[in-house]
Amino acid sequence: MKALLIVDVQYDFLPGGALPVEEGDKIIPVINEIQEQFQFIVATQDWHPPKHGSFAASHDGYIVGDMIQLGGIDQILWPVHCVQDTKGAEFHSSLHTKKWARIFQKGTDILVDSYSGFYDNNRKKDTGLAAYLNKHGVKEVYVVGLAADYCVKFTVLDALKEGFHTFLFKDATRAVNIRPGDFEAALQEMQEAGAVIVDSSVLLNL
């Protein structure tokens, strides 16, 4: 069985949001078209408590882009984003959600960030996503969403570690690109780990 995994298509990661991904909104129509080809769909949602440890505003004397230790690992500091029960944390209204089987929230622990939809960044807490997919007999995971060089990448890498045959729809993701070339570097890292990078046009042959 195959599953579509939609990662963090939320207002704060879209143009006009607190942590916007350039052209992030352009992937929404693509994702909606992709969803028509899947019977089993799940999604992840960044869902931070106020004053989360990954926010620069939570640390006196630090600014966005600074590096700190959080949860025992290196952490880049971000703008305040995807705070629980705020508009920025909501999925974009034009994103089709009716077919979704379940939403997995992440980043809920104030003391550690969580890019992956499977685990937090120090891999101590499990969202339950892998168990849920296994329970439903999923063998193949197809990933779309935001952002390619952070939450999408780490979700793909963890899907591979959990034993899923993992695909990424290249035309249904965009990158933060803090450094030029981060998108391409993320694609290469995922591919070298075993992910299959495809265009959504392959759906015609699934």
UniProtKB/TrEMBL annotation:
Organism: Anditalea andensis
Pfam family, one: Isochorismatase
Alphabetized GO MF terms: metal ion binding; nicotinamidase activity
EC number: 3.5.1.19
CDD domains in the cross-refs: nicotinamidase (cd01011)
GO biological process terms on file: pyridine nucleotide biosynthetic process
Pathway given in the UniProt record: Cofactor biosynthesis; nicotinate biosynthesis; nicotinate from nicotinamide: step 1/1
Record-stated family: Belongs to the isochorismatase family.
Name the UniProt record assigns to this protein: Nicotinamidase
InterPro entries given in the database record: Isochorismatase-like_dom, Isochorismatase-like_sf, Isochorismatase_Nicotinamidase
Record domain Isochorismatase-like: where: 3-200
Keywords: Hydrolase, Metal-binding, Pyridine nucleotide biosynthesis
